[in-house]
Write a structure and sequence with these properties.
heterodimer, A: Methylamine Dehydrogenase, Chain H, about 40% strand, globular, B: mainly alpha, WD40_repeat_dom_sf (chain A), PP2A_PR55 (chain A), WD repeat (chain A)
């Protein structure tokens, strides 16, 4: 099960975006990656509060040999840094999450959030403009009324495509703690935002009110031992959502049961294996991401060392557990010292739920084929591989060896990590962010 | 691994080795956890999730140590986390910090040894004991932290100079004046926010030293409107720390010879400056 070194995988590097530079500005570090519901658009957010949207080229998309390329479509500043004067603390402009709304008309809508504020952005195209005004020249100057001898009707003329992003809603002042998740409901009218201790339900149209649906803040903050780490709505049932905690449990809640869903409907928790107990057991059990499968039948959780697939009908234990980088288990003390143990890795499902994927260190990412029960370790690197070439798979061994397709644990670079990943909703295209760059991989055409 | 039914018996030496490895790792994790909790990551809010995880790890080790009956460094622990959370606890729904947080700082300063009544400063001998023992702990862990020694010389001197814990104690009275002005602010703010300040029963002096006093003085010392930039804030905070040192030095040097009248005048000056600050805050 643990990386059988196939040599070549079926994935190839398609594109790399961003500066190929070792010296990266803090503001350029990517902090969110998300495909739209059609897969045509790919949004990234960075620590500087900017969002860059890439669009897939339409012409090559349907060609069997064509690699559909993503090119920059729109760039805009989503969030600005703010200052809380009374606490004398900065509110970072870093984009924590991006979630697309399903497309209803020609415009695209997405939700983006930093630690405190969620915003709804409308991205629309303009490729025509009215020309032939009577009272104005083309450059905007007003014509002298005496020079008018005839009247004409203005007509729309084509112009260069302009993509505009405008903020349509700002949902502010509802979170005391840092927002870690947003999730759009399947009813396409509401969404949830979750911080460390509370989850709020919003209606997309209303910014001045939100409904608190989960509150785990204890009356006495000294008794606080558990926080919310991730949350998501069920993809099909608009009344169901889940949230993961820092203690490794996931709670499923039904909003029909009560207004305040402090009582869970289901609790997904695997009993701890006493043989692997250490000082860091709780920290490594903390859920960093939770994602429903497209079918809505399964749920995947990511903690520091493993990926777990849960059947929503069985709370006692996951149906599948995959080791992402079990070789780190003996290194937990060093990882605690350099804070890497607190890294929050995302995970994602393939379009047909048969594969799942997550990131690791040394710019490695792991792909797990659930049906074939095979997994592979690939590297996101523009040096070791050219576009179109199938990636070679890696193995990680103990010690500090370094061979052609094998690397020792002690040689891993923990500063190069892949935290943010997204999988195209239908096709075999994945996008992931290293610290510097955005990588897009596609399946090798046969 | 081992086959079924096969028991391996550790030799005495091996067992000691394993145990001392365990103790060593436990001590390492304990020290790391205390360091992480006490370090200030900068101007942005350190994550609550991270603090909770570190605190839980620390608690687990402390429980183990307590169970073994040995000394437990770093306790009282519950509020290392609680101190930081307390401001958040008294928030109304929203990202603003109500002035009731300043109210809590007053309690921190007055309740230097738990548990004690809110309005009465405790006797200086008790202050000295818990203060210096906590400082000694910190110095063991973080010998390079400059501010610790700063406080040891300045406040330690001022506190031990006068056995009377009330107005004539220069170190405490300086803090009292600040807190009295703070309480006048917070009283008016309380009526707006409708919060009742909570009683601190247990807290770590380390937190008092490293976090609350900076913010307290930051709020009390007048500043221009230059607070918009975050770099401006950091300058103010460091200025504030310097001011604290100068003020305390001034008081401890001339404390015993100052008359009560002149200290009252200084208090009045502080109050008018605070009024000015409130105008700026509320007016904007």
């Amino acid at each position: 099960m643990d990386g059988d070194g196939e040599g070549q995988s079926r994935w190839c590097l398609s594109q790399v975006k961003g500066a190929i530079d070792d010296d990266v500005a803090e503001a350029d570090i990517i902090s969110a990656v998300e495909f739209s519901h059609s897969g045509e658009l790919l949004a990234t957010g960075d620590r500087g509060g900017r969002i860059v949207i890439f669009q897939q080229e339409q012409e090559n998309k349907n060609l069997p040999q064509g690699r559909a390329e993503y090119n920059v479509y729109s760039t805009f500043q989503s969030h600005e840094p703010e200052f809380d004067y009374l606490k004398s603390l900065e509110i970072e402009e870093k984009i924590n999450k991006i979630r697309w709304l399903p497309q209803k008309n020609a415009a695209h809508f997405l939700l983006s959030t930093n630690d405190k504020t969620v915003k709804l952005w409308k991205i629309s195209e303009r490729d025509k403009r009215p020309e032939g005004y009577n009272l104005k020249e083309e450059d905007g100057r007003y014509r002298h009324p005496s020079s008018l001898t005839t009247l004409r009707v203005p007509v729309f003329q084509p112009m260069d495509l302009m993509v505009e992003a405008s903020p349509r809603r700002v949902y502010a002042n509802a979170h005391t703690y840092h927002i870690n998740s947003i999730s759009v409901n399947s009813d396409n009218e509401t969404y949830l935002s979750a911080d460390d201790l509370r989850i709020n339900l919003w209606h997309l149209d209303f910014t001045d009110r939100s409904f608190n649906i989960v509150d785990i803040k204890p009356a006495n903050m000294e008794e606080l031992t558990e926080v919310i780490t991730a949350s998501e709505f069920h993809p099909l049932q608009c009344n169901t959502f889940v949230y993961g905690s820092s203690k490794g449990s996931v709670r499923l809640c039904d909003m029909r049961a009560s207004a305040l869903c402090d009582q869970h409907s289901k609790l997904f928790e695997e009993p701890e294996d006493p043989s692997t107990r250490s000082f860091f057991s709780e920290i490594i059990s903390s859920i960093s991401d939770v994602k429903f499968s497209h079918s809505g039948r399964y749920m995947m959780t990511r903690d520091y060392l493993t990926l777990k697939i849960w059947d929503l009908h069985m709370e006692s234990r996951p149906v599948e557990t995959y080791q992402v980088h079990g070789y780190l288990r003996s290194k937990l003390c060093s990882l605690y010292e350099n804070d890497c143990i607190f890294d929050k890795f995302e995970c994602c499902w393939g379009g047909d739920d048969s594969e799942v994927m997550t990131g690791s260190y040394n710019n490695f990412f792991r792909m797990f084929d659930r049906d074939a029960q095979r997994d592979v370790t690939l590297e996101a690197s523009w040096e070791n591989g050219s576009p179109g070439c199938p990636l070679k798979s890696w193995r990680v061994s103990a010690g500090s060896r370094r061979k052609r397709s094998e690397i020792g644990v002690d040689c891993l670079d923990f500063s190069r990590k892949i935290l943010y990943t997204s999988w195209h909703p239908q096709d075999s295209i994945v996008a992931l962010a290293t610290v510097n760059n955005l990588y897009i991989f596609q399946e090798k055409p046969n | 691994m081992l086959g079924k039914g096969l028991k391996r018996k550790l030799e005495q030496e091996e067992e000691h080795e394993v145990m001392s490895c365990y103790w060593l790792q436990r001590q390492t994790v304990l020290n790391l956890s205390l360091l992480k909790l006490h370090s200030r990551p900068g101007h942005s809010d350190p994550g609550l999730a991270r603090r909770v995880l570190i605190t839980n790890t620390l608690r687990h080790i402390q429980d183990e140590l307590r169970g073994e009956g040995g000394p437990v460094p770093g306790s009282p622990l519950a509020v290392v986390d609680g101190c930081r959370e307390r401001p958040a606890e008294s928030h109304s729904e929203g990202s603003l910090t109500p002035v009731s947080r300043l109210e809590e700082d007053r309690h921190l300063l007055l309740c230097l040894s738990p548990p004690t009544s809110r309005q009465q400063p405790p006797s200086s001998s008790v202050i000295k004991d818990s203060f210096t023992s906590a400082l000694a702990e910190i110095e063991d862990l973080c010998p390079t932290v400059g501010i610790t020694t700063l406080f040891t010389t300045e406040t330690g001197r001022s506190i031990t100079s006068d056995p009377n814990p009330r107005q004539t104690d220069p170190g405490l009275s300086e803090m009292n004046s600040s807190t009295d002005s703070v309480s006048s602010l917070s009283d008016s703010a309380l009526s707006v926010f409708g919060h009742t300040p909570s009683l601190l029963t247990d807290f770590s002096l380390d937190d008092f030293l490293f976090t609350e006093i900076d913010s307290l003085l930051f709020d009390n010392i007048p500043y221009g409107s230059s607070l918009s930039a975050s770099s401006g804030a950091s300058k103010v905070v460091s200025m504030v720390t310097d001011d604290l040192v100068k003020t305390l030095t001034g008081y401890s040097n001339g404390g015993t010879s100052q008359s009560g009248l002149s200290s009252n005048q200084t208090f009045k000056l502080d109050l008018s400056e605070l009024d000015h600050i409130m105008e700026v805050l509320v007016g904007s």
